[in-house]
Amino acid sequence: MTTATLPDMQRWMMEALIAPGRVDGASVAGTFKPGAHIDAAACLGIYQRSYILRLRQCLIEQFPATAHALGQDLFCDFADEYLRSCPSDSYTLYELGRRFAGWISDNRPDKDLPESERESWIDFMIDLATYERALFHLFDAPGHEGKPWPDGQEADAELTLLPSLVLGHYRFPVAWYYHEVRAGKSPAHPGPASQYVAVVRRDFQTTTYPLSPFHHRFLMAVQQLGSIDAALEDLAAWSQRPLEDVRNSWRTDVRQGWIDAGFFIRRGDA
Amino acid sequence: MDGAVKQSVAQAENPGSTFERLGLGVGLRNSHFDHILKAWPEVDWFEAISENFMDSGGRPRWVLDQIKERYPIVLHGVSMSIGSTDPLDRAYLAKLKALADDVKARWVSDHLCWTGIMGLNSHDLLPLMLTEEALTHVAARVRIVQDVLERPLVLENPSSYVQFQQSTISEPDFLRALCDQTGCKLLLDVNNVYVTCFNAGTSTDDYMKAFPFEHVVQMHLAGHQHCGTHIVDTHDGPVCDEVWQLFRAAWQKTGGASPLLEWDGDVPEFDRVHAEVLRARAYIDGIDPVEAVATRSRTSAATSTPVDFMVPNVMGDSRMQTL
């Protein structure tokens, strides 16, 4: 590295940060002068050490419940390996954890086993990280603040789902676990239990609402079909219940509560 | 602006800059949002981290929109990567321009560094090999950035932990040439000068003698961690006496550049941060400095370029509720 061009040197140093073990001492001494009190390798080591500490801390901040569930040491091991495999490819730190849940899933040690033989705690970590990423993204996503909200007097045809509403289905009660951690408790890892949720941000407050599987399917249908009427018909066909029953349940059981919670906005205000 | 500082600024010589003298500023941090919105503290101006707001559709951007109505805003970036040999990120620059226009940024700054290559981002301010090749490369990119932003770019001297065998130009000379060739301006971080010179075993006096103060529009102050054999630029504590002395010497030479305090690790309550930058008054006016306010002990390891302060506390704004 004694006569490197600027691109050569930058490639070399980037690799030295991401994979410190691959850098040989001779190339370090050929690239950098010794510091006042430490040699060239120790000087580079300040960058190498800070690189991983800095980004690891950001992942802890972005996945506090996953870090709690894994424990600090194990989470750091996961984070370090993730950062080596999936170094940041964005100018913003907000994207740092975008691939984290997928990376855990792709790299689970039991991934070649049949699903029935896999470790359930890994499934829990994947779902928890997925949920945390959804919350993190929603926190700063474009929202509806500053615009009018419907009051329930509108016809169904005037309503559309809040564009940023998140519908989630998890194999474990991850939302419960997350908020137990938020409350300062130390919950045990929960056993498998399907959890369906809607996550909404209103007035910059992010709220997770547990849903029944039936309601989750309905909201998914609204999201996909773009219309409450079409979703009611879809739900009636799927559940083999009379359309009027389903429509009545929508109107009397959930409509006003969901509007008040911010699930819907007026089409013209989107 | 504080009266004493305003008077001192008026008295200071300022060779030809049209940049405003903003007074004593504080780096805008997520953990202080609620306090600022409630107390509207008497701060002269705020410096916002560009990347925290250019994509924000949530509360951070809403908070900045409130703050911009009451205080001058300067944008300070950490990901422009002006020294990288990757292509400039045009989408990033377009968003930066839109944000700068929207918040009426008094100026837009970033660092003389590169942050990544091959499409990757280290989220660190990595050192540039200071050669004629690098000068030509960076100058060309500064011109492009200034064309997009439609304003001069302000570049900061970074903290450095290495010196390249191949470097042929000193940092002050590199910055002077860059300003002369492009019309860009400078943000002089006196803590970074101290850190870089200590780590390299070079003289801060020599650095300051060579520095092109006539191009400086802003100054940074920050704390660091002294590790015995080297210093790490941690931004996690009060400014040390040696850095204050550098500030005292440099500020007059800049003609009254706008000082700002950065506190990014173990961030204390707002009033403590504000009190630290107000200590600059004494050094500006040449009177006995105010005694430093006690600060809690550090809790973090010496990590350069801390960035976790940029990650919002999402958990704090989340709840679970049944209908």
UniProtKB/TrEMBL annotation, chain A:
One Pfam family assigned to this protein is DUF2063
The keyword DNA-binding belongs to this UniProt entry's keyword annotation: yes
Keywords assigned: DNA-binding
Q: Which GO terms describe its molecular function?
A: DNA binding
Q: Where is the Putative DNA-binding domain?
A: 9-104
Q: Which InterPro entries match?
A: DUF2063 (IPR018640), DUF2063_N_sf (IPR044922)
Give the protein's recorded name.
Putative DNA-binding domain-containing protein
Q: Which organism is it from?
A: Kordiimonas lacus
From TrEMBL, chain B:
The cross-references to InterPro entries, in alphabetical order and at most eight, read: MbnB/TglH/ChrH, Xyl_isomerase-like_sf
Recorded superkingdom: Bacteria
The protein's name = Uncharacterized protein
